[in-house]
Amino acid sequence: MTNGREDFVDVKVLKDHLKVGKSFIYKLVMERRIPYYKVGGKFLFKVSEVDEMIEKEMRYA
């Protein structure tokens, strides 16, 4: 995070953060279960948004 703004991360960084495989990240994207941004053909994520969405899913599961 720089200047009070959160940086975007790519699939590799997100998979390491969540401790899952790349294919699982892509599955979550295709099912629209995690928030993402598509820039120049690349999927980018804000870790805080993904963590929040996962926490909500776990709460209601």
List the helices and strands and how they pair.
Blueprint: H1 11-18, H2 22-30, E1 37-39, E2 42-44, H3 47-60
Antiparallel strand pairs: 1-2
Helix pairs in contact: 1-2
Write a structural description.
The protein has a two-stranded antiparallel ribbon with strand order 1-2. It has helices at 11-18, 22-30, 47-60, and strands at 37-39, 42-44. By secondary structure, it is mainly alpha-helical. The protein has one domain. The longest helix is centred in the last third of the chain and has 14 residues, at 47-60. The mean pLDDT is 92. It is 51% helix and 10% strand. Helix 1 packs across helix 2 (22-30). The protein contains three helices and two strands.
Please describe the structure with a list of short key phrases separated by commas or semicolons.
61 residues, mainly alpha, two-stranded antiparallel sheet, 3 helices, 10% strand
In short, what is this structure?
The chain is mostly helical. The chain has three helices and two strands.
